Amino acid sequence: MKSSANDAIERAASVVPSERQLIWQDIEFYAFIHFGINTFTDSEWGSGGESPSIFNPTSLNAEQWVKAVKAAGMRGLILTAKHHDGFCLWPSKLTEHSVKNSPWRDGKGDVVMEASQACKKHDIKFGIYLSLWDRHEPTYGEGEPYNEFFKGQLRELLTNYGELFCVWLNGACGEGTSGKRQNYDWQGYFTLIRELQPNAVISRCGPDVRGCGNEAGVCRSSEWSVVPSYLRIAESDYSERQTKKHSNVMALDLGSRNAIKNAKKLIWYPAEVDVSIRKGWFYHKDEDYTVKPLSKLVDIYYNSVGANASYLLNVPPNQQGLIEDRDLETLISLGAHLEYSFQENLAEESVMTGSGCLDNEHNPQMALTPSPDEYWHSGMYPVKPWLILDMGDDYDIDKVVLKEHIRTGQHIEKFTLYGEIKGKWKTLFKGTVIGHKRICRFKEVRIQRIKLVIEKTRCFATIASFEAY
Predict the structure, then answer these.
(1) β-strand 438-457 against 412-421: which pairing, if any?
(2) How do residues 132-187 score in pLDDT, each as one tens digit?
(3) pTM score above 0.85
(4) Which architecture, in CATH terms, is 351-468?
(5) Torsion of CA 430, 299, 275, 127, to 10 degrees
(6) Which of 70, 197, 160 is nearest to 124 (CA)?
(7) Residue 197 neighbours by CB distance under 10 Å
(8) Residue 273 CB-half CA count within 13 A
(9) What is the CATH number of domain 5-341?
(10) Residue in 104, 87, 101, 110 with CA at minimum distance from that of residue 36
(11) Sign of torsion over alpha carbons 330, 334, 336, 337
């Protein structure tokens, strides 16, 4: 018997993130580093038959990567430790197809180690990408032998390089008409990661973070974190996922009342937006003039970090092992732009009033405190609750940043921001979900008071942060 719509809403409202998901959500913006044998063959997907002798980044400097990432305002870095070609950027004991048989560092180098140490030195979170598809490994497609090989490589990466914030798994599986296919031991992989790196999220093909459905830097206007469980790889009800008409991650609506009403199980499964700074994912010299302009990268930031998703920006080093000057200049400009745009929160030390609250510990002023554990709570089942920010004087404002207290779930479905202009409330912005963060951009106005009206909510409304810029 199908659950009623009200039951579905109650269930959705009760779903909350895990501690590792909460930590990941606060990272928000981080780098992908696609680097490997493909960098030296000018390709995107290697065959697996390449000789390790061609891997020789004579000027490799992982600190340069990390400094560039940090300059852009990013807080993490994920390295492609192994791509589909099977070439390992660390001296794996399980294959000869690795840096140990390359001329780089006389066969004694370890790109993963150098990247992890640079991240630690500069206070950047470190993560790894390990391709499930391995076009070099002869056991690929043989079932259990390859699963044991893959888990062995996972163990090497999860135990030798410090704490990881993310293990990024793709779903590639012997693509092509002649490709061998492998039955992946998803649960075995997840169990091993949880055992060895309990604080790391498992992203893309995993239980913690999902892709937004494309690699174009675009997410939905309503990007819900609470979605049906059949969207997740290796979920116990995977068969349901296969039969759902709208089960793929490209669907425009994953978390609305209509989308979840018949779901057997709901999970906290937030979105990640991945995109490359260039046309391709690996470095190609003929793409030096395809580096995305600052304006494009800024728009992606607002439409990912500012729309309840994370932003994974790929920056590929060249054959020397360095981030190219054009990419570097763009990253520095991006960081400067973001720092300038959010340098002074004009809502600080302001006064917040509202339509009501659950209790005095959750009064409207709590939306302005820096502590994530202090927040405004509307009380149960409110009717269009509202908050009014009074900054005490007129300021030029073009952005408001809102955050829900997601430890208590994602509830807000629709809201409107108003600015008081000549004694009348004028609409500044209309939005749907808020979630971890919503950056509301509008034409600059000179105002003293801003009103947030929550038009529709599930069981209650919370605001943990209300900022104005």
Answers:
(1) antiparallel
(2) 999 999 999 999 999 999 999 999 999 999 999 999 998 888 865 557 789 999 99
(3) yes
(4) Sandwich (2.60)
(5) -80
(6) 70
(7) 24
(8) 24
(9) 3.20.20.80
(10) 87
(11) positive
